[in-house]
Structure formats: C-alpha cells, structure tokens
Amino acid sequence: MSNSTGGGIAELGTCEWPPLAVADSRVHELLLRQERQERTTLKLIASENFASSAVLEATGSIFTNKYAEGYPGARYYAGNEIVDELENLAMDRLKALFGCEHANVQPYSGSPANQAVCRALLCPGDKMMGLTLPEGGHLTHGWAVNFSGTDYQRVPYGLHEKTHQIDHDSLRETAKRERPKLIWVGGTAYPRIFDYEAMAEIASEVNSYLVADIAHISGLVVAGVHPNPVGHCDVVTSTSHKSIRGPRGGFILSRNEDRYQALYHSKSKHNLAKRIDRAVFPLLQGGPHMNTIAALAVALHEAGNPSFRVYGQQIVNNARALAQALLERGYELVTGGTDNHMLILDLRERPLSGKAYAERLSQAGIITNFNMVPGDRRHPALTSGIRLGTPAVTSVGMREAEMLQIAAFIDLVCRQPDDSDVHARVRRDVADFCAAFDVPGISDR
Ligand SMILES: *Cc1c(COP(=O)(O)O)cnc(C)c1O
C-alpha cells in the first residue's frame, strides 16, 4: 500500500527525495524493529555476522546502479573504467589474502559460486562426491533436491560412526570404487578442522578435482586459525557474509591451469581460470552486483588488518569456551567439542526436538538454528540438534566470560522448556546483557 501523504517519490525533475523513514514508513519501521531485535538478542547463528558500517555503506552505495556485464577490461557496457578498478581491487585483495592465482568475485552468493564451479569442471551426469547434508555437508554438494543432485550423479560420503569426523579411509574406498570427477571438502555443520592434505591425496589417486567450500570458515582461514586450502585444492569457493564479515555474496579462487585439462577438457581451449569465469558469466549470470563487489573489497581490506587475526582467534576461543561450559552442564556435543567457530548440541537423548528447543531459545532472545546431527532419527524439519556459532557475538566484543553467561542462559531455557515465565525472564536478562555491547552497523550509525 502506498501512503498518499508525506511519503512516496520525488516529482520528476526535482532532487527532493525523502529519506527512508518518510519515503516508505512501512519498510523503515520493519528495519527499526530488526535493528532492535539484533541489539537485544544473542545472535548465535553460525552463518551470520555483523558487517561493519563501512561494508554496509558500500553495499548501499551508487555502485548498485552500474551495469558491468563482462570482466575488467572486457565489458559489454560503457562507463566501466572505475568499476574495473574496483573489481580488480577486490580480486587483488583476495589473491593476496589467500595466496591464490585467480579470483572471481562475481557470484551472487555461495550456491551460485558452487554451481559455476560444477559447470566449469563437470559435464551433466558426472559423479560428484560430497559430505551428506545430515552429517554436515551443504545442499550444493550433491543433495537430491538441489541442482547438484538433479544434474550430477551423487556419491555421498559420511562421517566415522564413532568419532563423527571425516573418515578418510572409508572416503578413499568409496572414491576408488566410484571414481568421482569432483570431491567437495567443506560443510555447513562440521565443527572440526578439514584435512585438505589428506583429501588432496585421495583426490589425486582417483584423478578427481578437489574443491574446498569454505563458506563458513573463510574468515578463520584469513585470520590464520584454520588451514588454508589453497595449494591443496583445485578450486576454493566461499560466501562473503559469514565469518569473513562482508556483504551477502560469493567468490571463487583457483589455479590458472587445469591439471586434468588433457584428461577431461582436451577439447576446450580455455584453462581452469577462464572456464570458471565463463561459467559465472555468461553461462549462469548477467551483470555483477558492483555494490556487493565494492563492499567485498572493503571487507577484505578490514580482514587484512592485523586486528582481524585477533578477531579470528577470539571466535575460536569463544567457541571453545562455550563448548566447555555446555559440556560441564551435561550437554552432548557432536564430536565432543569444536576446533572452529561452531558447535552442535546433540539433543537426541532429550525429550524435545531441535526445532522445539530453538523456538524456546528464541523466545528467550537466543537466536540459533536447529540442525540434523549424525544418527538423527527425527525428521529434517524437526531434528535433534542445535547449531551454535560465535562469529557474531565475537564481532560485538564478547569474550570467554560472556560465553559462560550464554551457556547459563541456554541451560536455563533448555532445562525448563515448558516454563514461559523462565523464558520471559531470560529474555529480559539477555537484553540487559546485550545492552553493554556495541553492535557494528547498528550502534555506530
Ligand atoms: C552458506 C553455505 C553455502 C551457500 O551460501 P548461500 O549464500 O546461502 O547460497 C554454500 N556452502 C556452504 C558450506 C555454506 O555453509
């Protein structure tokens, strides 16, 4: 509905554009409510973060208006001299941070980045191997309802029955039997370090591409608190909005040359880097989102600052402290702990589903998501797990001491899941607790 008084758009030919509060009071009100929610709750969703004001400013800049189909120096539109510099800057910063030969910053997000990689490396019907979704893999690594499952042959791998960590021996067996052309290493709910060296050895034994998807952990890699897959993997993909704290988007890193060019792509005159670029544009996408690329460049500049290493280390320290505190309170964690920014509460032995606990926690101002755990017997829409992550709470400045308090809040709610008075009390305490911290992008605006 448009409001007939006060709001709306400027008269043609004038420059009197009203601010959001006036132009669209409905959206403005929703924005204020979202800001308030984020200031007064604990954001423990492992894939979320608080982008800085500078990143948000670039995201909301006039770069949003520019069409720049193509790549720097080879565009299909005029007037791109400045955005050429911008995109080159983002690519150069990525290459410097990760030490890779080639970077593509145009994918609209993580899933389109993964799709582009599949199109650059595989033919429809080829075999792709990935960690299953219930055990921590991502939709795009070969799940039935996703393009990766409909367009390619899925060869799933799982976790070790007891350790719930990647079982390289059985993975090797499966790879030797199935001879996949692509192996994914990475996940969305895996709290341990990925062994890229071991995975690279297996991939080489079966002439498979190895692709690391570091969507969750790219910030940790840049900070030096998780191994860098570049060098071990043919291609690396990531989102730009998770631990690396940039805008909503994705990027792809790779070598220039394809080590399997003669084997799988002898008919192509393009090397690996070029095939990836062509898969992103024009195969799958049109014009890149230059505002997002601008914001990515800003985020990478921030991530190159020594303070980002401190940030990354604190994310991990916080996850460990939270894990330890929850273990001491009698909770089970998948793999018994964490090496990175996330932990997964294993609630299989508890009376309610992961979804039910996540709802209770949310009423108490603790924002999480429910998640499958290894051996889960509940439906994927209910699950027996809760995933917790520390990137966002670390961005607001919380440390180990705060993690102990967060564990206490979680415990209060989960021990009394049916007592809404308790939830309301914790909700107030959480709001008081959060008030002591400045939230990037909100408090400093
Ligand atoms: C988040 C995530 C993605 C997908 O990112 P979107 O931006 O949501 O498309 C891909 N892979 C992994 C491992 C992820 O965690």
In words, what does this structure look like?
Helix content is 42%, strand content 13%. The protein has 445 residues and is an alpha/beta fold. The chain has two domains: 62-303, 3-Layer(aba) Sandwich (Aspartate Aminotransferase, domain 2), CATH 3.40.640; 308-434, Aspartate Aminotransferase, domain 1, CATH 3.90.1150.10. Helix 8 links the parallel strand 7 (182-186) and strand 8. The longest helix has 23 residues, at 306-328. The two termini are 29 Å apart. The site of pyridoxal-5'-phosphate has 15 residues, from helix 5. Pyridoxal-5'-phosphate is lined by residues 47, 109-111, 114, 138, 140, 186-188, 213, 215-216, 239, 250.
Q: What are the salient characteristics of this protein?
A:
single chain; 445 residues; alpha/beta; Aspartate Aminotransferase, domain 2; Aspartate Aminotransferase, domain 1; 2 domains; seven-stranded mixed beta sheet; four-stranded antiparallel beta sheet; 17 helices; 13% strand; binds pyridoxal-5'-phosphate; one-carbon metabolism; cytoplasm
Task: Summarize the topology.
Blueprint: H1 20-23, H2 25-40, E1 42-43, H3 53-59, E2 70-71, E3 74-75, H4 81-98, E4 102-104, H5 110-121, E5 127-131, H6 147-150, E6 153-157, H7 168-178, E7 182-186, H8 196-205, E8 209-213, H9 218-223, E9 235-239, E10 250-254, H10 261-264, H11 272-284, H12 290-303, H13 306-328, E11 332-333, E12 342-346, H14 354-363, E13 366-367, E14 369-371, E15 385-389, H15 391-395, H16 400-415, H17 420-435
Parallel strand pairs: 1-13, 5-6, 5-7, 7-8, 8-9
Antiparallel strand pairs: 2-3, 4-10, 9-10, 11-12, 12-15, 14-15
